[in-house]
Design brief:
This protein is an all-alpha fold. It is 67% helix and 2% strand. The protein contains 14 helices and two strands, in the order H-H-H-H-E-E-H-H-H-H-H-H-H-H-H-H. A two-stranded antiparallel ribbon has the order 1-2. A hairpin with a 5-residue loop joins strand 1 and strand 2.
């Protein structure tokens, strides 16, 4: 991977910010912004995230109030929105549009209204850093080592597990997924969400250079839409499993693919409770 050292330097700067004193936070944030600008791969990733990001709308959602009227910060669930929102927030702090100390005072004070920059680091900077690590394959190897050392389960042992446990081990369900659906007609919201996600992915795919891979992915996404309209969860699940591998290398679909996959997995998890 090109510019790997630059990406690692950016991650290091994020770590540095999380441990810095509040007085020096602005300076550290400017260094992060400089590192982003100097790393083409990171800048390209953030630009892609910004394509479908409505800054004004997402800022209104993130910087809100609880039931008591207290100002709170709520990070969006979608990964591409997290990257885009944090980047915009850091840019606004760097430009002086948002004052760092005022931001902490308004949205990240502790229960006693004392300034708590650590809360900002944990809520904002760490998720941003972790998503960058994941996006560029810089994960720590410990978790992989544990999996490699674990004794593999036999087919008989897997078959003996409850359905919900099998789904955690086997990437494709052993039986048809609709076997687990107690009420397939109750999955209407899942079909709507999956259809909308597929449409958004097709729109994003239109911005890519046409290749054999994008043609295949485009066809599969249209099949997802048809399967959703017909409420065929088996087909939706199978197509999404295939899309997970078919979309590899198409970075603009990376986070949207995760959203689509999470929609299907959430339905399976709900039905196997």
């Amino acid at each position: 991977m090109e510019n790997e050292n630059q990406i690692k330097n950016l991650i290091s700067l994020c770590d540095d910010l999380t441990t810095t004193k509040m007085l020096f936070a602005d300076q550290k944030i400017n260094k992060i912004l400089e590192a982003i600008a100097e790393c083409p791969e990171v800048y390209e990733l953030l630009s892609e995230c910004m394509n479908s990001f409505n800054k004004a709308k997402e800022f209104d959602r993130a910087f809100t109030k609880d039931s008591t009227g207290k100002k709170i910060f709520v990070m969006p669930k979608e990964e591409y929105k997290v990257l885009a929102l944090v980047f915009c927030l850091l840019a606004d702090i760097g430009s002086g549009k948002i004052k760092y100390d005022e931001l902490i005072t308004s949205y990240f004070a502790d229960e006693n209204n004392r300034l708590d920059s650590q809360k900002f680091m944990e809520s904002v900077i760490l998720p941003f850093k972790n998503l960058l690590i994941d996006a560029f394959g810089l994960q720590e190897p410990e978790s992989e080592t544990v999996e490699e050392e674990a004794e593999p389960m036999t087919e008989e042992q897997i078959e003996a597990l409850p359905p919900e446990e099998r789904l955690k081990i086997v990437p494709f369900p052993i039986e048809r997924s609709s076997y687990y659906l107690k009420d397939p007609t109750g999955a209407c919201l899942t079909f709507i969400a999956a259809k909308d996600a597929a449409i958004e992915m097709i729109e994003r795919l239109c911005e890519e250079k046409e290749t054999a891979q994008t043609d295949d992915v485009n066809l599969m996404l249209h099949c997802v839409i048809i399967a959703c309209l017909e409420q065929d969860f088996d087909l939706v699940n199978g197509l999404v499993c295939g899309l997970k591998y078919a979309t590899k290398g198409i970075r603009s679909l990376k986070y949207l693919m995760r959203e689509l996959e999470s929609i299907v997995q959430a339905q399976i998890k709900h039905e196997t409770k």
